Every structure is written in C-alpha cells, then in structure tokens.
Amino acid sequence: MSTTHSADTTCFFQGCTSKPMEGSVKCHFHRNRGLCRINNCRNQVYARSLCVRHGGRHPCAHPGCSTNARLGDFCCRHSKYKKLCHHPGCTKVIQINNLCIRHGGSKHCQYEGCATPARCGGYCWRHRKHIKHFKDSANATKEIQSDANCNDTTLWDQGLFDAIAASDVESALSSSPEDLDASILDVLLRCDSLTIGSPDSHVTVA
C-alpha cells in the first residue's frame, strides 16, 4: 500500500506525518537526513546518496568482511580513507595519536577520579554538567581580580590626598595651576618613603 504525501503539509520522508520546516521539505526531526538520489524516492540515504532499497547498503568488498560498505565499496575499517589503530591486532578506526579509544586514543574526563574518555568540552557525557560550572568559576575569578585592582587604585588616591593634606598647601591653593602642580611634586619628592595601600598590597614612592 502506498502512502500519500503532500509536500505542503507533511515531511518528505516515507511514513513521516510531521510538518516540514519553513523553506524545507523535511521536518525538524529529519532536517539532517539525506534524500535518496533516485527520482521520486522518499527514503533516507544510507550510503553513497542512496537508500537501502536502491543499493545504499551492500557488504564490504574486503575478503571475509560482512560489514556493510560505507565509503565506496568498503566499510570504515577497510576503506583507504580511514586509518586503523596502530595497536597490534586492533582493527578499530583511530581517534587520537594513531590509536582508537580503547587503546588510549582519547583524553580522559577532567572530573577528578574519572577515567572515562572525554566527549564534550573535556568531560565525559556523565560529567558534562561541570562545563558550565567551570566557566562560571573562571568568570567569578576575573570579577574578583577586577575588584582588587579597583581597590588598589582607590587606596593609592586616598593615600596621596592624605600626604598632600598633611603638608602646607594653603599657599599652594591660592597659586597658579603650574605652582600647584609643583607643590604636589614637591610633596612626593620630600617623602623619604611613602607607602600607600593595604597590608597585603603596598605601593611605595621613593
């Protein structure tokens, strides 16, 4: 029995009754699925732009291999486009450093005590929630450092003001701007050791 499809109201693929996305013949679920290259075929691509019905699936051409072909006439393990793990006797496809995941071809999860291969952002799938926690912690550290720099600047300004106020500045205030600048400079030069800041962070003007 054939199924009737309307390109305007339903997804292009056989048996799917979902509405297509705007500007597409495929629904959201099938948005990344390929269309069989045979005219009027509503099946999904399996390999080589063909569905299973039209020859998209056939055994690997490598002697003794019954795996379905994916790349050309060969499966992933026997295709010249894919390199195999360098571990003796292993026929798995390499991931990192010419090794498959089982033989060390991946990085471990960053979560303390976890030896599962990392899958997303340095964490395994189970501990992926810590990715956001790590970013939030890093942002908080930056904000703390920014506040500390701001406090140091405030202490410096306050300390400089106190040093100038302790000197004889009455006559300087009634002088010209050039004389006032000279008075401030004189205060700094006459200080043998002016230390301004908090106990943990000092600024010294010699």
**Mean pLDDT, all residues:** 69
Uncertain segments are: 1-7, 192-199
SS summary, helix count = 4
Distance between the termini: 95 Å
Order of helices and strands: HHHHEE
- Give the percentage of residues in beta strands: under 5%
Q: Tell me the strand order in the biggest sheet.
A: 1-2
Helix-residue proportion: 25-40%
The major beta sheet can be summarized as:
2 strands, antiparallel
Give the overall shape: flat
Taking all Cα atoms into account, the compactness measure Rg is 36 Å
What is the number of E strands?
Answer: 2
Description:
The structure is a single chain. This protein is mainly alpha-helical and 206 residues long. Among the domains are: 1-57, no CATH class; 151-205, no CATH class. It is 29% helix and 5% strand. The protein has a two-stranded antiparallel sheet with strand order 1-2. The protein starts with 51 loop residues before the first helix and ends with a strand.
Q: How would you summarize what this structure contains?
A:
InterPro entries: Znf_WRKY19. The protein is mostly helical and 206 residues long. It has helices at 52-56, 130-165, 170-173, 177-190, and strands spanning 194-198, 201-205.
What keyword list fits this structure?
two-stranded antiparallel ribbon; disordered N terminus; 5% strand; 206 residues; mainly alpha
